[in-house]
Amino acid sequence: MKTWIPSPALQNNNNNKMMIPSDTIFGVFLISQLCIGVLGNSLLFLLYAYTFLVKPHLKKHIDPIVMHLMLANALTIMFTLVPDIASTFGVRRFLNKVGCQTVLFLYRVTRGVCICTTSLLSAFQAITVSPSNSKWAWLKFKLPKWKYPLFLFFWVLNMVVYFHVIETITAISNFTLIGPGYAHAYCQNKYFGKHKSPSLFIAMLVRDLLFVLLMTGTSLYMVNLLYRHRRRAQHVHSPRVSSQTSPEHKATRTILLLVGCFVFFYFSNNCFSLYSYNARYKIPRSEGISGALSSCYPTICPFLLMKNNRIVSQFTSFF
After folding, report:
1. What is the enclosing helix (H) or strand (E) of 42?
2. Which residues make beta-bridge pairs with 187?
3. Which of 4, 114, 131, 157 has a 20 to 30 A CA-CA distance from 18?
4. Phi and psi of 237, rounded to 5°?
């Protein structure tokens, strides 16, 4: 009696059918990141809006800054991940020339607004916890009045900085791009492979460094205040006093953690993007990885800030 033995080619074919393609796994990861990030930011935005409109006695001056950050985060995640998800699942011609210009422009603007708003949040908290006799005390009464003009300034500033995107980005026309330049599954730089004037990169670098240095400086200032507060608490021999932590200091620790996450993912994403931009041969999945990295901070941000919301704290303490 003859025994049928499948050929090696047929065995490999069956094994390939059983394996899940890596693009599918990466696409599911991006979809999960999109859903978690948008839902988290939307939920926290609605909670702060509820407090702002229904329970005005609980609102704080910092609440509009958090709401503005949540809005910018949600928009950044959507404009970043939706094209990457479509390209991962093989959707062709998802964006034309106008779509590329619009989506990339809005992504760059909202990401820049996230940077600016995070810097404002850190500076606002540093001024809030500063002693009444410090040289920044006068800003405690001025800064709350400047919030909304600063929001408008952030949007206008980033629109001006990234207006060039409308002129330099077009739909992809060549799938074998070689040389330095921006390349996506649907979009590419018009001057791909050509070295352009560095003035634009200098303008973006100056803007980013300015706000990142502001974040770093205010964070170091808050760390110094927390250290001095802890030293004073240790000199008080009462364990009840030394173990107390004010809501302001809890919020300060949260914002310090937030700034730390931002700086880590900001430099990680920039290093990877710089490598991808200057690589001679483009990796098809590089823009998806860059999008996932740039969306990590907006995705984590609302969950770090939720514990400072009184409604969330009451809800979690109930369980």
Report:
1. helix 22-53
2. 171
3. 4
4. -80, -10
CA gap 30, 25 in Å, rounded: 9
Chain centroid to CA 20: 30
Residue 94 to residues 91, 98, 186, Cα–Cα distance (Å): 6, 11, 7
Judged by DSSP in three states, 223 sits in: helix
Q: Say if residues 89 and 223 touch (Cβ distance below 8 Å).
A: no
Question: Model pTM?
Answer: 0.82
DSSP assignment string, 65-85: HHHHHHHHHHHHHHHHHHHHH
Q: What is the DSSP letter of 130?
A: S
Residue with tokens 């992504």: 107
- For the segment 210-265, what is each residue's pLDDT rounded down to a tens digit? 888 888 888 888 888 777 767 776 666 555 544 445 666 677 788 888 888 888 88
Which of 36, 39, 219 lies closest to 122, judged by CA?
219
CA dihedral angle for residue 176, residue 180, residue 181, residue 185, rounded to 10 degrees: 30
| Torsion on CA atoms 57, 62, 67, 73, rounded to nearest 10 | -160
Q: Which residue is listed with tokens 């810097």?
A: 119
CB atoms within 10 A of CB 122: 26
pLDDT in tens, 27-43: 899 999 999 999 999 99
**Rounded to whole angstroms, how far apart are CA atoms 40 and 69?**
12
Which residues in the chain belong to E strands, given as ranges? 169-171, 187-189
First to last CA, the chain: 68
Tally the C-alpha atoms within 13 A of residue 266's C-alpha that lie toward its C-beta.
21
